[in-house]
Amino acid sequence: MIDKNNLPAPRLQLRWAPSTLRHEYNWECHYELVLPLAKHDIRAEQEGSDGERLPPLKELVVPMKPPSLRNSEGTPCAAQDGGRYYDDPFRDGSHAWWDSKLLGNPPIFVIAPDGMAFARPDRDEDRDASPVASNHIGVVTEKVAAPAQSGEPVAWRYLTPTGWHATTKMDKALGAGAHHDMEPLYAAQQPAQTAQPVVTCKCRRLGDWKGFHHPLCDEAQPAQSEPALQAEIDRLNAIIHTPESDEFLKGAAIEAEYQRELHGVDASDARFDWHQWYWVVGYLAGKALAACKSGEGNGEKAKHHLVTSAALLMNWHNVLTGKPAANVHSNGCKAFADLVAALPASGDE
């Protein structure tokens, strides 16, 4: 824990303050780049309201994006037991980590409303983080040497607020690369095929050879059962972990966390209002239906609404499993949900 006046520069900082932008939110977090100013830098000069010269600035604070908003009664960086901790908004914290890699690894700090600063701790995901890609297709800015690739990319993936998406179309990749981090994907290099021994066993005679002998074949050996089992496991994993399912689940998990960040975590009995959950999920699914019918955004809008619907279902599931869940009553569609809930059921007079 460090006083904000004693922080090094340059740095990236996430600065918490009481919200003045929207009355329904308690806090706002400013994501900023802080640069040191030299003694004779003209940007350090400042004047008072009457034109009097004020002490020069020591740092230049550059906003990186509009502030993020949080609806929570709890004070940022302060735990219920009185402890203090590094409390970064989910999306801005990820952006700060990626930007730090691009800027030469300046330190990252979260500044609490009382001015106390907390350095970003080491996290497990840092070691497994994907390379940070520039907006230029095929250029990956990563300090670790990437394995050599041969041939042209077969696809590209790009990062959006709902997670990673992939495309095999060059024109779509060029358009998305203007607004999102882009990473080329190459076909995996196939290992050289080794000559197979000539075997006249029953497996080959029946045309049922899959690279290993059937367990009942007279040529089968016990040692071959283990690689065969691993091959089957790899085949099933390849089916399960397709880009479509991985990206959808990852996007829903990120959006679920964002919903808790945006609307706050509901610890009251109101979280057991099952009808409210039902109507809000229906509202979001209805938006997905409308986007599918209109074709808005060439299908991307509908995908986004489906991810937000799945994320809300995750938060609903959290209520049943005792995990933190988003405050569904602060959602903007509450009035719509109340209106629909008040309608008479089908068949009522």
Which helices and strands appear, and what pairs or packs with what?
Blueprint: E1 2-3, E2 11-18, E3 27-36, E4 59-63, E5 68-70, H1 90-102, E6 108-111, E7 116-119, H2 124-127, E8 155-160, E9 163-167, H3 170-177, E10 181-185, H4 202-205, H5 225-240, H6 243-263, H7 274-294, H8 300-321, H9 334-342
Parallel strand pairs: 2-6
Antiparallel strand pairs: 1-7, 2-3, 3-4, 3-5, 6-7, 8-9, 8-10
Key features of this structure:
globular, 349 residues, 34% helix, 10 strands, alpha+beta, 15% strand
Describe this protein's structure.
The protein is α+β, with helices and mostly antiparallel strands and 349 residues long. It has 3 domains: 2-47 and 54-127, no CATH class; 136-186, no CATH class; 243-342, no CATH class. 34% of the residues lie in helices and 15% in strands. It is built from 9 helices and 10 strands. The chain has helices spanning 90-102, 124-127, 170-177, 202-205, 225-240, 243-263, 274-294, 300-321, 334-342, and strands at 2-3, 11-18, 27-36, 59-63, 68-70, 108-111, 116-119, 155-160, 163-167, 181-185. Strands 1, 2, 3, 4, 5, 6 and 7 form a 7-stranded mixed beta sheet that branches. Strands 9-8-10 form a 3-stranded antiparallel beta sheet. A hairpin with a 4-residue loop joins β6 and β7 (116-119). The radius of gyration is 27 Å and the shape is globular.
